[in-house]
Design goal:
The chain contains 6 helices and 9 strands; from the N terminus they run H-E-H-H-E-E-E-H-E-H-E-H-E-E-E. The chain is α+β, with helices and mostly antiparallel strands.
Length: 183
Amino acid sequence: MTPEDASKFIAYVLRHAPESIGLRLDAEGWADIDALVAGAVANGRGLTRPAVALAAISGAKKRYELSADGLRIRALQGHSTPQVRRGFESVAPPAWLFHGTATRFLASIRAHGLLPGTRQHVHLSADEATAVQVGQRHGKAHVLRVDAGRMHALGHAFHCAENGVWLTESVPPGFLSESDGTS
């Protein structure tokens, strides 16, 4: 299994389907690394403890966190599995945040705003360049500006994950505008 394949597999299991390999997560999303590896191997995946450690410390996205004792791992955000309910602290966001999406989703977003879909939160970026990268994963990228300061002033909660990804429950259409640098 390549490092990229290992990281994608770990993301899938920790965020969406721990039961697919018989893994249990606690309410904060922590999984025992040995159980993760054993479940993966039992299901035909060549995952190793060093591959898990490498996935946790490599990559620009910093998707994972290792426990202080090095025995557990968790995905920082992006969960769709109902057993995980991370206790993020509510914090004041920057005035503007950004959301990268593919152009084919724009009509729906303009009508309904940003919704979490199967995830628990909408993911936002503090900078436009990161939002462009996110949007490119699904097609031609388009970046929307989110008036996070105004949303927060009106009572919308924001959280910042350990890797700098901003999270909120949804973004109504009235808080979205076009970014200057993309189309």
